[in-house]
Amino acid sequence: MEKIPESFTFTVGKLDAGMAILLGERAHLIEFPSVLLPPGATTGSIVSIAVHQNHAEEKRREEDFWSLQEDILKEYGVVKPSNPDLQLRHVTQTSVTLEWPSIQLATAKLRSLDIYRNGERLASIPSPLTNTSTKLSGLQTDEEYTFQLILRTTAGTFPSNIVRVRTHTMTNTSGISVCFGNVQDSVFLENTKMALREMKAKWSDKIQIDTTHFICTTPAMTTNGAQATGDTAGAPGIEYQRALQLSIPVLYPDWVIACYTEKRMVPIGAFDLKADRVTPLRSQSLSQVAINRSPDTAAQRNATNRASMPATVSSTSPPGTHSPFVNQPAFESTPEEAAAAAAEEEARAPATDVSTRRKSRSGTMNREFKFPSPLSSPTVAKRESGAASSNSPPPILRGELGRQEGVMTPSSIEVPPPPPVEKERSTNSVDETEDDVGPTVEVDLS
Questions:
Q1: Are both 87-166 and 177-288 of the same fold?
Q2: Could you tell me which of 160, 168, 150, 151 has the C-alpha nearest to residue 96?
Q3: How far, in Å, are 318, 321, 339, 349 from residue 335 at the CA level?
Q4: What residue spans carry the Low complexity bias annotation (predicted)?
Q5: One digit per residue, pLDDT tens: the chain, 446 residues?
């Protein structure tokens, strides 16, 4: 068996640009890096090159390779994102507050985190990597809902557990979550907290995500319940401003006492601090608190409406005692003026029987009224009836008198007949309008 030589002999043929041309004994020609040649080797030098297999290094590199594969498997193949753990934090009549721990993505990348209500996608959670709670409003009172989070990543989709919750009824006041501001009366503040404790509600000094109402008696800033002084005296507090930004109702403490007294949720309209429609109750024990701001009764409202209407003017009032304008007060008149007005009204009335006098309303027309004919004019009839009187003037003087008074009888008026109207003649004759066609000729068509 031929022995394989452990080394080969070459002659350096040329050195150029970091490469050496080596010539072998059997006319082999190879390119060899000049940096691997022994120091001092030049053109024509004879070198020996030996090649050996390094088994130890091969084994070490193989072990390093498989170790890296195990690390990749553990990092990307075993650890994966975890399913969100959805929890119920707070519930009221119309809202639900949910929370969950920070999501674990492992080595995957986040795509979306969505909230589902009753199996339908509701909205995406903003800032899902840092946000761990959400408040859902606009729900129906005393109705059951289901909620679930869906986490979508590059490693797959991971749903959370399903949370079932029923919103509160109007008689359930345990969902009240109050943030206290500046309540100037310390005794009244303690009574309000005692009422919240009895209703199983909660309160805090900072606005949280589940805060439902902000309770104070003044928007002035306070420190640990004390009135602010110095430059900040009277300035709105930070929590008060946050309540306005978050549209949280700002109410007097009387609202909490009203809910405790009536054992139900009371409308907040009459206790709104911004509207300034109520005055806080005085300091007293909780058992002595009474709500005196109940809505007006129907009788009070009717009396107010009647008082705001103008006085009705009687139809039997003497003339001149009321104003001709609508809804205007009556004129003041003395008894002498009223008596004189009544006498003038009687003298104006016709001398007929009251029972036969036609009753008519103001603004209506007598359907039996007819316009008098010229011959039956009241003026003419009056003059003719007065001719028999001994004091009336003679007929000639009556005519003079009629002319002096400006009254003329129909017989004395002469109306000239209208002038005759001539028929309009045509300006163009038939001969002028027709064309001259000349003599006609009969043509036999057979």
A1: no
A2: 168
A3: 10, 11, 6, 22
A4: 329-342
A5: 455 557 888 899 888 888 898 898 877 888 889 888 888 888 889 988 888 889 999 999 999 999 999 988 888 888 889 999 999 999 999 999 999 999 999 889 999 999 999 999 999 999 999 999 999 999 999 999 999 999 999 989 999 999 999 999 999 999 999 999 999 899 999 999 999 999 999 999 999 999 999 999 998 875 444 444 444 456 788 999 999 999 999 999 999 999 999 999 999 999 998 775 544 444 444 445 444 434 444 444 444 444 444 444 444 444 444 444 344 444 455 566 667 767 666 666 554 444 444 444 555 566 666 666 555 444 444 444 444 444 444 444 444 444 444 445 555 555 566 666 555 554 444 444 445 556 666 766 75
Q: Would you tell me which CATH number, out of the four given (2.102.10.10, 1.10.150.130, 2.60.40.10, 3.40.250.10), belongs to the domain 87-166?
A: 2.60.40.10
Q: What is the distance between the alpha carbons of residues 250 and 220, in angstroms, rounded to a whole number?
A: 13
The alpha carbon of residue 307 and the mean position of all alpha carbons in its chain are separated, in whole angstroms, by 37
Query: So where are the chain's domains?
Result: 7-50, 87-166, 177-288
Three-state DSSP state, 381 = helix
Closest CA to 213 of 171, 266, 143, 282: 266
Measure CA of the first residue to CA of the last residue in the chain; give whole Å: 141
Q: Locate the DSSP E strands across 235-298.
A: 250-251
Q: What is the rounded distance in angstroms from the CA atom of residue 282 to the CA atom of residue 293? A: 14
| CATH level 3 topology of 177-288 | Rossmann fold (3.40.50)
C-alpha distances out from residue 316 to 10, 278, 358, 365, Å: 149, 47, 17, 22
Spell out the alpha helix ranges (H) of 233-361: 238-245, 254-262, 298-308, 335-348
Which two three-digit tokens encode residue 446?
Answer: 């057979």
Asked if residue 20 lies in contact with residue 32, where contact means CB atoms within 8 angstroms, the answer is yes
Cα-based torsion angle of the residue sequence 33, 35, 41, 47 in order, rounded to the nearest 10 degrees: -50
Question: CA-to-CA distance for 51 and 99, rounded, in angstroms?
Answer: 69
- Both tokens of 394, joined, read 């003679």
DSSP β-ladder status, 163-166 and 144-153: antiparallel
Q: Name the nearest CA neighbour of 248 among 219, 223, 228.
A: 219
